[in-house]
Give the backbone structure.
Amino acid sequence: MQNKTNFILTVSIVLCTLFTSCENPIGNVLLRTYSDPFDQAPVVDSFREVEKIFISWDEDKGADEYILLRAEDAVNPVFKEVYRGKSLNFVDSLGNGLNRSTMYLYRLDKKRGKVSFESENVGYGYCSPKERDGYDNNSEDNPLFLEMGYAYERMNLYCGKYKYKGHLAFETDWYYIKVSGNSVKNIVVKQTQPVPNGASDPVIFYSENSYSLTNVGQNFQITNQSLEDKYIPFRLQMKDFPDNRIEVVTYEIRIANEMPMN
């Protein structure tokens, strides 16, 4: 009976060691998923810092190794490996071969044992000469409140069209204002970089909670025809998508005045 008890105890200790040890190759093999690695496009952030591209991806229990590849934007891109390992992120930079103001594609391949899995998806990057502005107002769910007497300066917008699959890259900036009943507010948007110098320059457009964009020009009006005060959202966006390049503009926005409707 004592021998049987000792045997059970020994087996328990061995099993516990196998399946709980942090550095246990046997336990890792027995407990890991049987599924092949899943396919995903890496998440690419091109505007966090100047001339750096931040790439990240989800952990995959079915993968032993991640292989990140990069290509310059092209109809038929030629990918080259820039990272191989177990990390879930990578920072690309000029020192790693990036060129300023150049559009890139990133592909995340994976390896399980001796078998390689090539991804069919890509993330789109850009070696930007500008970083994003400090406001997280890129969605309708998180607009900035624009109040009288205050100007948001050094705001950025970008847009462009990639050669690869005609992918469109663009940013929207959302705001909202309070408009008194039966009144109109005049909004001024001034593009500061590059300074507009002709019809070919990028133009900022706006829309009031819809997909119909209107030319900003020097200013535009938002009206409230009801008798009650209203909070009205609107967005700014560049309408035209230049081919094979990303255009980044800097602007400032403010309320000029509010007037009663005639």
About this structure: Helices lie at 2-20, 25-31. DSSP finds two helices and 18 strands in the chain. The chain has two domains: 43-126, 144-260. The two ends are 101 Å apart (CA to CA).
